Amino acid sequence: MSIDYSQKIPNNVNLSDDRALQRALEHWQPAFLDWWRDMGPDGSHNFDVYLRTAVSVDPSGWAHFEHVKMPDYRWGIFLQPADPERKIHFGEHKGEAAWQDVPGEHRANLRRIIVTQGDTEPASVEQQRHLGLTAPSLYDLRNLFQVNVEEGRHLWAMVYLLHRYFGRDGREEAEALLERRSGDQDNPRILGAFNERTPDWLSFFMFTYFTDRDGKFQLCALAESGFDPLARTTRFMLTEEAHHMFVGESGVSRVIQRTCEVMRERGIEDPEQVRAAGVIDLETIQRYLNFHYSVTIDLFGADQSSNAATFYSAGLKGRFEEGKRADDHVLKGDAYRVLEVRDGRLGEREVPMLNALNEVLRDDYIKDSMGGVARWNKVIEKAGIPFRLTVPHKAFNRKIGTLANVHVSPQGELISEAEWKANERKWLATDEDRAFVASLMGRVVEPGKYANWIAPPAVGINRQPMDFEYVRFN
Ligand SMILES: [Fe+2]
Ligand SMILES: [Fe+2]
Q1: Least buried of 184, 275, 314, 333, by fewest C-beta within 10 Å?
Q2: Signal peptide location in the record (predicted)?
Q3: pLDDT tens per residue, range 357-387
């Protein structure tokens, strides 16, 4: 399953056998490159960046590293190898052969799923495009760019499906993916969190930890799909996603480590003193965490959703690790608990599980995202500092679903609007917090040097020495 790099569009799908498709994609390619030039990492086009490129889709195919200019990165179309025996393993079509083409009755829903996923990919590149100007080291700058080129490739992955399986509508959707802009008034990206700003590196690390992890869960659910090309595409995307979450988890961890070092050296705990020492106080890190976590769990959608039921029963989108679950994979008559507000209190209610599948995926996500927070707390604990980071209650700061119209504290108490107003600044990053974090941002370009507010990583990329030149500016 090696990838043919001799072609204009690298691929492992025998693109040259389908001339019409190849021509359509070669027509889209310059539009993509124009978009990259306009909306990709600011001022970076001439840099040589130490990037990792997939040369095959098996795990060892990731060993290829070299300095490349990002506009020359070989974006392409890579699918996990097909299993000719594969069966649909959930929903009403359970046991039937997986679809190699789009079933007519599911066409509109599948297109919508693919477009929604595809839209998040260029959105995050747009959100992050200014960050290179304030990277805390060459190592971090390179990681940002690696994430960016891979999000670009994820866009290619979805555009391939649109072009290959959805005819003219698919081609129009592929164009629209290059026309929407993150945060644009008139033509924004589809999902809320992808129109938020990623103004500083703490936001970037929180985004790659929390929001790229939403990507992981969505991709895992799509990797179960009865539509085989979607399953195979998303499975390969997941190998790239793992790196994005690593960047987030290790990034936040290094920020915490540096803060703790300074707190211990100077024997300080007061956030004002911590800030005066030029590092980010743990309280601010908690408020950033609260923001990114709550905005991200909204991405899973309404807690009860007939669309989610349809997507599952039709075999389009499964659950996280569908194949490992011991139930009947049809879920008719099963129940699930969702949160609700009754008589002025937050409680739980049983609803049909099929309607609650967004909530099921959100709960799996929550479990997974807590792991990293526990590891961050280990860093604080090791430094002998009594502070602990916490994940806020699921109902905190929600904008989607039943919880959108109530105020809930991070501890999960239902509170009045006045109480919310009085405490919001303690719970969510304020303009002042963001201004402080922004004041620390400044580009560090000397190999092996790091900004004061972040600790160096434990090891280099591809085991390169600490003073390796990950980015050459030319
Ligand atoms: Fe992605
Ligand atoms: Fe990602």
Answers
A1: 333
A2: none
A3: 999 999 999 999 999 999 999 999 999 999 9
